[in-house]
Give the backbone structure.
Amino acid sequence: MTEKATFGAGCFWGVEVDFRNVPGVKDAAVGYMGGDVPNPTYEQVCTDRTGHAEVVQVEFDPAEVSYERLLETFWSAHDPTQLDRQGPDVGRQYRSAVFFHTPEQQEQALASKARTQARLDRPVVTEVEPASEFWRAEEYHQQYLVKRGRASCAI
């Protein structure tokens, strides 16, 4: 039986690749979460007016990979001290966020955030909030880098 985990760590293209490379992850899809516009498009989200974050929703087998391991991947995939941006990408849609699906995920995410903060000298701005509706991004965004023969995004 699989579970879901959802993370916002800047531009979703590279983050999707990071999660797909974790053994035990069965699927990863890019999309939008945390906003107030139903069924948003990429163009709408890019205006920074819908409230959505670009996210990767991960389907994983907890018998093969722990949620804690997914959190480690999340922290290493981006800079959690950058508020509403990652590298050259600026806007609330690029915020650092963990969208939890269960009380256990919330507890683990908050503990992991505290451990991350303890090792950094700048404030961790990552939001930890309940998962809301996941809006799958347009098909051309799914596995975007893989389709183009690229392994990562340069930030």
User: Anything to note?
Assistant: The longest helix spans residues 103-119. The chain has one domain: 3-147. The two ends are 35 Å apart (CA to CA).
